[in-house]
Amino acid sequence: MHFSAIFGSVLAPLAAATSHSGCAPCKSSQIEFASTFKQPEPPRIKHEFTASFVQHKWNVNLSHITQGYITNAASKGFVAVNQANEDGLSLSFFDYKNVTKEGLVDNTLTTYRPNDKPQVWRGYVNSNFPIFQDDMLITSGAVYTGMVDRDFVGLVASWSIMYQGVIPVTTYVDNDNKLVGYDYFAPELRTRATTRFYNIKA
Ligand SMILES: *[C@@H]1O[C@H](CO)[C@@H](O)[C@H](O)[C@H]1NC(C)=O
Ligand SMILES: *[C@@H]1O[C@H](CO)[C@@H](O)[C@H](O)[C@H]1NC(C)=O
After folding, report:
1. Any idea which UniProt keywords this protein has (predicted)?
2. Is residue 10 part of a domain?
3. DSSP 23
4. How far is the centre of ligand 2, averaged over its atoms, from the C-alpha of 123 (Å)?
5. Pocket mutation for ligand 1, best pick of 4, 61, 62, 126 (most atoms within 8 Å of C-beta)
6. pTM of the complete model
């Protein structure tokens, strides 16, 4: 399970034909209670991007908010995440070319804490930062789950998948096929995580 703990959603306004920054006028066929509604085919998403992000993950034992800058380099097979939070500053490099059959990914983590030398750690982890491939929603048979008003980006389409067959993940995609965030929950520890992207360059 890559998503040890990641993905949430806000109900979409029904009369959502108007435009917001994230969504040029939405098609009426995308609006759930419109007579013209028809489930769209899942889109290809842009899989080479950088973005600022904020992520909140919580479960029975923790509540962790972090923010930073992420690079999703699907063609090169890596995700790089620079973060600042209560643990200090960290650089996390996830090498998705080196993944175990259980789905654990090679992570090199460099941490900077006050009054300490930088620490480098490497090992396999359950990543909160999956690698997004352009055909991911298509190959996983994503279900359209409506238009959603998201912080920072406005009205966008939501698509839900079962990540690795076990973790329900909802992704948010704007009209330009840019991924603007993802939410998930995992029942085991009652874990929930919500991740928002902004300042996206794709
Ligand atoms: C979560 O907290 C409970 C109660 O303190 C503890 O028994 C359990 O081991 C913790 N689980 C994890 C994964 O830390
Ligand atoms: C794969 O990842 C593991 C765990 O981090 C690491 O020990 C190993 O050197 C990596 N192998 C390659 C070929 O990079």
Report:
1. Signal
2. no
3. B
4. 7
5. 61
6. 0.84
